[in-house]
């Protein structure tokens, strides 16, 4: 992928912001410790924004670098696997929904949030070799929807206020 | 203005968003309904006394099972329409009798005074490998 220096720098900055957001989120106390995986997904604000303002390829690049750095700095190989599965499935679904062009960023982000959790649960099922955790999807589907609404609203704001900025 | 700020029919998009969210919730409710009605449906009611199995009865049949302590019938377990419930008990508190009917895997009815536990198990626990749950 041929990329302009300016775009490269801009995307690097967004990657850094996303990385900081994942660190900030890790500092917050767990929302419900009985069910791991419930979070807003603050870095996804950046990912959705890049998907809208740049393209799917750029969003995938930012997401992959963010996850790799986050796992190296704060996580381990297991978190890397969960993060990758969630992020890639989520991005694929969001890109598809954005292409259909019938929904606002909130709708796109909601489905992204739900599929983010679905991807992680599928990995958990493979890792733990059990289908018993399928009921997690009911809880995480609801929290993913709420998180998706928040991310979509915040992402729309970022998009709105940077509309006149030339990246 | 760049193309990114141009919103084609925002009201329509918002309406579609709401429909999408409702769709997601409907899918989750459907998933939950399927999950709780099919996946964990038990196959057997196992009766334990002092932690030891004294009997196992398939939920697929309608049965009335007297549970004895020596010659005395302490509890009466009834299996009807795939559910098991305690019809009567000699104990004064009647907690097990008031307990709702059980049919899902790992659900239990406990009768503490007579040390009886009725536990629902799946087909796998009875060692029948060909049964699909």
Our count of helices of chain B gives 2
Percent helix range of chain A: over 70%
Q: Give helix and strand order of chain B, one letter per element, not per position.
A: HEEEEEHEE
Count of beta strands of chain A: 0
The radius of gyration computed from the alpha-carbon positions of chain B, rounded to a whole number of angstroms, is: 24 Å
Q: What does the largest sheet of chain B look like?
A: 4 strands, antiparallel
Q: Structural class per helix/strand content of chain A? A: mainly alpha
Explain what the structure shows:
The complex is a heterodimer of chains A (167) and B (133). Chain A has one domain (5-161): Orthogonal Bundle (Arp2/3 complex 21 kDa subunit ARPC3). Helix content of chain A is 76%, strand content 0%. Chain A is built from six helices and no strands. Chain A has helices spanning 5-27, 43-53, 56-74, 77-100, 105-128, 136-161. In chain A, helix 1 runs antiparallel to helix 2 (43-53). The longest helix of chain A is centred in the last third of the chain and has 26 residues, at 136-161. Chain A is globular. The mean pLDDT of chain A is 90. A four-stranded antiparallel beta sheet of chain B has the order 2-1-7-6, with no helix packed on it. A three-stranded antiparallel beta sheet of chain B has the order 3-4-5. Chain B is built from two helices and seven strands, in the order H-E-E-E-E-E-H-E-E. Chain B is an alpha+beta fold and 133 residues long. In chain B, a hairpin with a 2-residue loop joins strand 1 and strand 2. Chain B folds into two domains: 7-39; 44-126, mini-chromosome maintenance (MCM) complex, domain 2, CATH 2.60.320. Chain A binds chain B through residues 52-53, 101-104, 106-107, 110-111, 114, 134-135, 137-138, 141-142, 145, 149, 159-160, 163, and chain B through 1-2, 4-5, 7-8, 10, 12-14, 16-17, 20-21, 24-25, 27-28, 31-32, 35, 39.
């Amino acid at each position: 992928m041929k990329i302009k220096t300016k775009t490269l720098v801009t995307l690097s900055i967004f990657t850094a912001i996303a990385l900081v957001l994942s660190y900030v989120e890790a500092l917050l106390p767990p929302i419900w410790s009985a069910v791991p995986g419930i979070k807003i997904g603050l870095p996804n604000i950046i990912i959705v924004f890049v998907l809208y303002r740049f393209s799917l390829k750029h969003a995938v690049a930012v997401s992959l670098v963010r996850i790799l750095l986050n796992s190296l700095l704060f996580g381990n190989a297991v978190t890397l696997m969960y993060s990758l599965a969630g992020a890639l499935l989520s991005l694929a679904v969001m890109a598809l929904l954005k292409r259909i062009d019938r929904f606002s960023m909130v709708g796109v982000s909601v489905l992204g949030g739900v599929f983010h959790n679905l991807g992680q649960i599928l990995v958990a099922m493979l890792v733990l070799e059990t289908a018993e955790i399928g009921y997690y999807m009911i809880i995480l589907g609801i929290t993913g929807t709420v998180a998706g609404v928040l991310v979509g609203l915040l992402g729309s704001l970022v998009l709105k206020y940077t509309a006149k900025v030339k990246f | 203005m760049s193309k990114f700020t141009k919103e084609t029919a925002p009201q329509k998009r918002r309406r579609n968003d709401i429909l999408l969210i409702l769709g997601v919730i409907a899918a989750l409710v459907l998933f939950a309904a399927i999950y709780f009605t099919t996946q964990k449906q038990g196959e057997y009611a196992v009766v334990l006394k002092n932690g030891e199995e004294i009997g196992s009865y398939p939920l697929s049949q309608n049965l009335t099972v007297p549970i004895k302590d020596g010659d005395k019938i302490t509890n009466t377990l009834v299996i009807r329409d795939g559910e098991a419930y305690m019809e009567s008990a000699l104990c004064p508190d009647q907690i097990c009798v008031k307990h709702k009917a059980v049919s899902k895997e790992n659900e239990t009815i406990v009768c503490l005074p007579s040390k009886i536990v009725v536990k629902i198990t799946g087909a796998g626990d009875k060692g029948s490998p060909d049964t699909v749950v």
